[in-house]
């Protein structure tokens, strides 16, 4: 399973959920779905915007976890 580790990277950059959602152009509710692991997919364009906002690489926020 692929997980997003947004909370860790957001804490490292001292950015709130509200601020990140605004920078990425998604609703806080959709960001919450990503953060809690309830999302089944993420668009590359959204992933790119998250990486731009957090100044990171996709591998910094994506993690493979065996089920």
Automatic annotation (TrEMBL):
Official protein name in the record: Transcriptional regulator
Location of the HTH cro/C1-type domain: 12-61
Gene Ontology molecular function: any one: DNA binding
UniProt xrefs under Pfam families: HTH_26 (PF13443)
InterPro entries tied to this protein: Cro/C1-type_HTH, Lambda_DNA-bd_dom_sf
Superkingdom: Bacteria
